[in-house]
Write a structure and sequence with these properties.
- The complex is a heterodimer.
- Chain A is mostly helical.
- Chain A is built from four helices and no strands.
- The model of chain A has no long low-confidence stretch (mean pLDDT about 90).
- Chain B is of the alpha/beta class.
- Chain B is built from nine helices and ten strands.
- In chain B, the strands form two sheets. Chain B has a six-stranded mixed beta sheet with strand order 6-7-8-3-9-10, with helices on both faces. A four-stranded antiparallel beta sheet of chain B has the order 2-1-4-5, with helices on one face.
- In chain B, helix 3 packs parallel to helix 5, helix 4 crosses helix 5 and helix 5 runs parallel beside helix 6.
- The longest helix of chain B is centred in the last third of the chain and has 16 residues.
- Classes of the chains: A mainly alpha, B alpha/beta.
- At the A-B interface, helix 1 and helix 3 of A face helix 2 and helix 3 of B.
C-alpha cells in the first residue's frame, strides 16, 4: 500500500517533469521524446528530487519513518517509475527509428 | 518492568550552543514517564535523539536489547518504536483511514475502526487531516499508535494546544497503553494532567536530566519546585 502510494507519486511527478521538459524542447524545435542518455539521467534525478521536496513539504517523513521506511527505500520508490518511463521511451524511440 | 529504550549520556550542540551535556532518557515497559523542562532546555532534542530522528554528538541509544551509536529512526520504528512529533504526524495527501491502513498493513496492526472508536474519531476516518481540529487530530494520532501496537512510544508535547477534555482523553489513552505493557515517554508542560497520569518524572534542565521518581516525590523536590514549577504550582505542591 505504501509502495503503491509513493511509486504512484513518483510516476505522476516524472510525467509532469517530462511534460515540462517536452514543452521546452518543443520551443527549441527539438523532438521532446528524443533525449540523450545524460539528459534522461538528469530527468530521473529532477523528478526524484521533486518527489523528495513534495514529501518534505507534506511533512510525511515522520509517518514514513514510523512505518519503517528508510530514505533509501523512499528514493527507490520515487526513482523507479522515472527509470522505467525513460527506458520505455528509449525502447519506443529505438523501435520507431528502426 | 524492563528498560526497552535508553538514551545514555547524550550530548548535543547546535553550532556554539550546547543544548545537552549529559542527558539520559529511559523508557520502561508498563510505565508512563514524563519529561518536564523549561522551553529550550532540550526535552525535544533528547526525545528526537532517542528516536533516531537527529544524531547526538556523543552517547548511545539502546533499544530492544541492541546498542546503537548512530540509531536510525526507521530501524527503531521497524523494531517497535513509535515517535509522535509535536505536530503533523499525518500526511495531507491521504485521508486518516488510508494512513491508518498503511500502518495496519505494514505491521499487521489492530483493527482501525476499533482504535478510532476508542479515541472518538470514528466519524473522522474518511476526512483529510487538515479538516480536523487540533484535538481531533491528536486523538487520530493516538488511534494510529493503537493500530501500530508499538513496544515503545515517544511523544513530544502531545497535549500542546489541546482542550482539557481532549487532553484528559489523550492522557487516559497513554495510561491504557502503559497498562498494556507499552513503554511510554511523554514531554509537556501540562503539569496537573501529566502528574496525574505519570509513573515517573524526569526533569531536564541545564543540559542534563534528573530522575525525580514518582510524581509524589517529584513535587517535593525543592529544586524542581523552584526551577520548573514556579511560584503558583510551587505553593500548591507545598
Amino acid at each position: 500500500m505504501i509502495v503503491r502510494a509513493y511509486v504512484g507519486r513518483g510516476a505522476r511527478l516524472w510525467l509532469l517533469t517530462r511534460l515540462a521538459v517536452g514543452i521546452v524542447f518543443l520551443f527549441g524545435q527539438a523532438n521532446p521524446l528524443d533525449v540523450s542518455t545524460r539528459n534522461s539521467f538528469g530527468l530521473v534525478l529532477v523528478s526524484t528530487f521533486a518527489c523528495a521536496v513534495e514529501t518534505t513539504r507534506r511533512r510525511e517523513l515522520a509517518l514514513l519513518g514510523n512505518m519503517g521506511v528508510s530514505y533509501a527505500q523512499l528514493a527507490a520508490f520515487f526513482a523507479l517509475p522515472a527509470i522505467a518511463g525513460e527506458l520505455l521511451l528509449r525502447i519506443l524511440m529505438a523501435g520507431l527509428a528502426a | 518492568m524492563s528498560i526497552v529504550l535508553a538514551a545514555e549520556c547524550v550530548t548535543k550542540s547546535f553550532r556554539e550552543r550546547r543544548v545537552l551535556s549529559s542527558a539520559t532518557l529511559r523508557a520502561v515497559t508498563g510505565q508512563l514517564r514524563v519529561i518536564f523542562g523549561r522551553n529550550g532546555e532540550g526535552k525535544s532534542t533528547l526525545i528526537k535523539i532517542a528516536a533516531g530522528r537527529i544524531a547526538a554528538d556523543s552517547g548511545a541509544v539502546h533499544f530492544d536489547g541492541r546498542a546503537y551509536l548512530t540509531p536510525r529512526f526507521h530501524e527503531l520504528a521497524a523494531r517497535g518504536l513509535f515517535y509522535l512529533p509535536d505536530h503533523d504526524l499525518f500526511s495531507s495527501a491521504f485521508t486518516i483511514r488510508r494512513q491508518l491502513e498503511m500502518i495496519q498493513r505494514q505491521f499487521e496492526g489492530d483493527a482501525i475502526d476499533a482504535a478510532a472508536d476508542r479515541m472518538g474519531v470514528l466519524e473522522h476516518l474518511d476526512r483529510w487531516p487538515y479538516k480536523l481540529s487540533g484535538g481531533e487530530l491528536r486523538r487520530a494520532e493516538l488511534a494510529a499508535i493503537i493500530v501500530r501496537r508499538p513496544r515503545c512510544v515517544l511523544a513530544d508535547e502531545p497535549f500542546r494546544g489541546v482542550a482539557p477534555a481532549d487532553a484528559e482523553q489523550l492522557a487516559r489513552a497513554f495510561r491504557e497503553l502503559a497498562a498494556a505493557g507499552v513503554a511510554v515517554v511523554v514531554t509537556g508542560h501540562e503539569v496537573p494532567t501529566l502528574l496525574d497520569a505519570a509513573d515517573h518524572v524526569t526533569w531536564c534542565t541545564s543540559g542534563t536530566t534528573y530522575e525525580l521518581g514518582p510524581p509524589s516525590s517529584a513535587v517535593r523536590d525543592e529544586a524542581f519546585q523552584r526551577g520548573y514549577l514556579g511560584p503558583h504550582l510551587y505553593s500548591i505542591a507545598r
